[in-house]
């Protein structure tokens, strides 16, 4: 078990320790659940009342909130960011694989860097390159001529198709598929003619992709996921989508083909972004929003309606169908009143 003294934590977080800095911390916990040997944090003042009852050995606090707590405080500029950094340091998550399992299938032309780990029944195809410290989970497939950057971790049953590039320090969670064919077809008198998807997928550094997400390869050019992007579970990224640096996309979101999402965007869960449009840098899209046109100016955009009783919803839906008629009637009345 990883453990640290509060003095060491203070040095790690550039924090001020108020109280005994020799106290040993082994894990992080919530204010409500924390026990001796654990450190907690207060990032939202509405939970301030929990300070009095918490059993945490120390608490990460802002200077303002530290006034309301008499116990051992680790005073930082941003308690939530400090919590995240400390949690990384104390993380006890096991590796995706340790060593190279005898059941792994590794083509003789594949190149493995130093300290590579490959789990049971994983398959590394011809001319694949695994850089230093890569971890490949059990049952994972790395396709022909794909490249995995150093320190990247692929959990169990990930499928990486051919000619995919994944950068350094990435995390790809279980059952995600990267490089499957995009949805490209031509129609000839009612019959669908498949268009071979000959582009690839290019994923930058420090990217995390959740479980059961699909990222399609490009039709001709590449699908691109830039540095620092985080993508939640069960997200669909269609062919030739480009996602800018440090953008965050929540679960069940669909990005249609050739959509371009800017840098530092936040896309709420269950959203849908139509193809061949662009989203400005720094845009926030609320959950369940349907984006059907270009967003040129950053801001907060929403489209979902609130939940209501079914009877009311049905009545309002009928009224919505007559919205255009109502608009025209109002315009007509306005013109009539102006002419009087």
Give structural attributes.
340 residues; alpha/beta; ten-stranded parallel β-sheet; 14% helix
Reconstruct the topology from this structure.
Blueprint lengths: L3 E2 H8 L2 E3 L5 E2 L1 E2 L9 E4 L16 E4 L11 E3 L3 H11 L15 E2 L4 E2 L4 E2 L4 E2 L4 E2 L4 E2 L4 E2 L4 E2 L4 E2 L4 E2 L3 E3 L4 E2 L4 E4 L4 E4 L2 E4 L6 E3 L4 E2 L4 E3 L6 E3 L4 E2 L4 E2 L4 E2 L4 E2 L4 E2 L4 E2 L4 E2 L4 E2 L4 E2 L4 E2 L4 E2 L8 E2 L8 H12 L1 H17 L1
Parallel strand pairs: 4-5, 5-6, 6-7, 8-11, 9-12, 10-13, 11-14, 12-15, 13-16, 14-17, 15-18, 16-19, 17-20, 18-23, 19-24, 20-25, 23-26, 24-27, 25-28, 26-29, 27-30, 28-31, 29-32, 30-33, 31-34, 32-35, 33-36, 34-37, 36-38
Antiparallel strand pairs: 1-3, 2-7, 21-22
Contiguous runs where pLDDT drops below 50 for at least 5 residues: none
Q: What's the end-to-end separation, in Å? A: 83 Å
Compute the average pLDDT. Answer: 96
Q: Name the strands of the widest sheet in spatial order.
A: 8-11-14-17-20-25-28-31-34-37
Tell me the major beta sheet: 10 strands, parallel
Given the helix and strand composition, which structural class is it?
alpha/beta
Residue share in β-strands: 25-35%
E-strand count: 38
* Alpha-carbon Rg, integer: 26 Å
The percentage helix is: 10-25%
**Count of individual helical segments:** 4
Overview of the structural elements:
- The protein is of the alpha/beta class and about 350 residues long.
- It is about 15% helix and about 25% strand.
- It contains four helices and 38 strands.
- The strands form six sheets. Strands 8-11-14-17-20-25-28-31-34-37 form a ten-stranded parallel β-sheet, with no helix packed on it. The chain has a ten-stranded parallel β-sheet with strand order 10-13-16-19-24-27-30-33-36-38, with no helix packed on it.
- A hairpin with a 2-residue loop joins strand 21 (about 185-190) and strand 22 (about 190-195).
- The N and C termini lie far apart (about 85 Å).
- The relative contact order is 0.06.
- The model has no long low-confidence stretch (mean pLDDT about 95).
